[in-house]
Amino acid sequence: MDIFAHSLSGVLLGQAAAPIEAKKKERVYYITLGLIALTFPDIDAISYLWGGPEAFATYHQRYTHTLFALIAFPPLIAGLIRIFHKDHSFLRNYMILVVGMFIHLAEDLIAHWPLEFFYPLSRKGWAFGLIREDFSIIVDFLFIIGAMLTFYDKLEKKRRIVALCTFGVVFLYLILGPGI
User: Fold this and answer.
1) Which end of the chain has fewer CB atoms surrounding its CB within 10 Å, N or C?
2) Residue 60 confidence (pLDDT) above 70
3) Contacts of 180 by beta carbon, 8 Å cutoff, 6+ apart
4) Which 3 state secondary structure label does DSSP give 152?
5) What is the pLDDT of residue 132?
6) Which residue, among 117, 115, 169, 177, has the nearest Cα to 143 in the 3D structure?
7) Quick one: 121 exposed, middle or buried, by C-beta within 10 A (0-12, 13-18, 19+)?
8) Nearest to 42 by CA among 68, 19, 61, 70
9) ∠64-66-72 over CA atoms, to 5°?
């Protein structure tokens, strides 16, 4: 899936993870953490800058899109965040990072590019091909609408429900829709 959809998913996760009575500054923290969680696996896309398309094809979605990355990176990132933000719970940060990275992997599994999910134990690629390309204008549109609704003042107390419903609508579209 494209980075735009991952980022919007991060906003939705952050809105859902923030305490209901959270002040604006605290909500911004959780939205930022959601963005980090959902976009972190694509950090390996930097390989394009130093190696071009060949390096990108070789390294992107190999090391940071695996079960081992899902196990290793969240506690590392949560620990680093804890050093700078002692007032936030390590466990809560860790759980948001795990859920976010899991959502990222799930979003990439629905595309047509195979993920070597069990690398280095297996080089078998997994892809469900529910969208024809990594970019789906309909999925992005649904995520935009859902993310915008979580900021709507009248729905502020229901932002968790809005976020979860958005993920549900996207899931139903991918399963039942045409995949565009």
Assistant:
1) C
2) yes
3) 131, 132, 136, 137, 138
4) coil
5) 66
6) 169
7) exposed
8) 61
9) 70
User: 43: domain range?
Assistant: 3-176
Taking only the tens place, the pLDDT of each residue in 109-163 is 887 778 888 888 888 888 777 776 667 788 899 999 999 999 998 998 899 999 9
Give the rounded distance of the alpha carbon of 27 from its chain centre: 17
Stated length of the chain: 180
Per-residue confidence band for 3, with pLDDT thresholds at 50, 70 and 90: confident
Tell me which residue of 2, 17, 5 sits closest to 164, measured CA to CA. Answer: 17
Q: 62 - beta bridge partners?
A: none
Q: Which long-range contacts (CB under 8 A, 24 or more apart) does 170-177 make?
A: 170/139, 170/142, 170/143, 170/146, 173/138, 173/139, 173/142, 174/110, 174/130, 174/131, 174/139, 175/130, 177/138
Cα end-to-end span (Å), the chain: 12
Whole-model pTM? 0.87
Omega before 53 within 30 of 0, i.e. cis: no
Residues sharing a CB contact under 8 Å with residue 18, sequence separation 6 or more, in sequence order = 26, 27, 29, 30, 31, 159
